[in-house]
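Tutorial sheet, problem 5. The two components below are modelled jointly, 670 residues in total.
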Amino acid sequence: MERFVLGLDLGGTKINAAVIDGAGKILSSARDKTEAELGAESVLDRIVKTGEKALQGAGIRADQLYAAGIGSPGPLDWQSGVIIESAHLHFDNFPLGPRLSQSFGCPVFVDNDVNAGTYGEFKIGAARGADYALGMFVGTGIGGGIVIHGKLHHGFSKNAGEVGHMVVLAGGPRCNCGARGCLEALASRTGIVNHLRNAVKDGIKTSLTKHHGKRLEEVSSGALKEAYQREDKLVRKTIKRAAKYIGIGIGSLVNVLGPEVVVLGGGVIEALADEMLPVIQKSAARVAFEYSLKGVRIVRASLGDDAGVVGAAIIAKERFETGVQAPEVASEAGR
Amino acid sequence: MERFVLGLDLGGTKINAAVIDGAGKILSSARDKTEAELGAESVLDRIVKTGEKALQGAGIRADQLYAAGIGSPGPLDWQSGVIIESAHLHFDNFPLGPRLSQSFGCPVFVDNDVNAGTYGEFKIGAARGADYALGMFVGTGIGGGIVIHGKLHHGFSKNAGEVGHMVVLAGGPRCNCGARGCLEALASRTGIVNHLRNAVKDGIKTSLTKHHGKRLEEVSSGALKEAYQREDKLVRKTIKRAAKYIGIGIGSLVNVLGPEVVVLGGGVIEALADEMLPVIQKSAARVAFEYSLKGVRIVRASLGDDAGVVGAAIIAKERFETGVQAPEVASEAGR
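Model answer (structure tokens):
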């Protein structure tokens, strides 16, 4: 009997699922909205249903799964499968891994969503073949994943890789995390939009207000791309500024971590890679030592939305095969 | 026949050597000036003589050494034992490891001086018992070392750990490396002194000018400590400022790397640990996520000047015992 792995990717707005064969090939996939506002149990239910839809699409029964993996927003404990906290998803010490194990009747391994994406790119995407890789995903926030000697790095905190919360401009704009001048506060879509809003408040003109009125916080990465292409001066300057800071962050990380490949993904990069990547590379080169940057590739991700599900599935497959114990809920049910 | 390891620590101004027994205990040590201005061959000669002095002190013959280790300023190739470049030491692709192997008649393993110091603290000092450690040494510059899963992390560049060249204040003061706003430019002795000099230029008073005239660049960490203790306002403010930036850097590294212990050493910290450490810890806590900082110790180094020689010796011992090949010079002599 051929056996399969299910990969799941839990985001703030959508859930992706995919069935992967032994070679890492996607056999079928499914997606649904997260509807986070309905609460943790509802989200869990939707994850299970999305996974089942992917199984059906591949014509596979749940008992043909030997493992599943899920990438989730954190902080989380990848060993116990518990999501420590996720304000947006209403998770509060939620045993996501164990609960999903019950539902699917197989071990379910948990990791950070961005770690899963990085690992997907590392195993079959843009960072394939590297021994040391750094993933940076620029969307509403900025997340990262670190691969060292071919393995995901979790660190003592179990939540290493938070490259968006590296301070690059001390005393700079306030970040959602409470600190000032984090890379995320400067260069995520949130950081970009905040910068645009402040500029508009200061009387600087942008074509975005014509399209979006004063509700610039709802501007998507695609809308930023369009404004960039119609030569909106403020948008161009703001996007380049974000790219400069991303490059500064990457240059610092090249000095500190010494990755071979830096993979850039996420909504902002997907929309604006052609515009941002050259600026990012140049800015990184101004910070990184020449000998540390030598041979280093700073490239865009190649798997798009699939990185997360594929990465989660491969993580599950590898942990299962190396005998890592998936956490169980059974004995904890009474707690 | 009992056998021993020789540890060497090559600095810009001095050379330390120590003979270590199987348990990592220092049996004897020696030191000399580097006299870097006399050129690479002269420095090599002094390293050998300092090592021999340590051997004599322990009553040991060179043939009782099974390996030696040396920590050197970089960038360097720890695998080939070649110092790629060190302007101050006049090293330019200098095969330090192989040349020392010839002199001592045993394998000589090379690593970055700060890596060696970090590893010493990790094995028998303030970071003992941790699985993930970060060393940060604040002196004329700022260097760092990273231990992941009990091993020194070198990365693809072979020179990872350059925590002093992480940008924490984009657009900030120019660093010796050419970039702007590196931690080293803000918080090393050089950064501190530059800040003091600029303040004095702006007419701010400090007791230091009474003691050192206008040559503030020669102010030692000890002199800074004295000025701090006599309540020199400018010095106090400047030291606290440096501590704040060090804390910001550490907070960022806690988010990115997830160390369990952060060990702080180097001349500035040795002189001013009591004054700086509380500020550093507080500043790090403002940047690091609470769940990532939980259980993390930010402490001062405990081995002082011995960290480098002990670390280099233990690195040599471990590489030798795990069968790592030390680079040889013989076949390359004709190149």
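Marking note: The radius of gyration of chain A is 20 Å. Full credit if you identified this.
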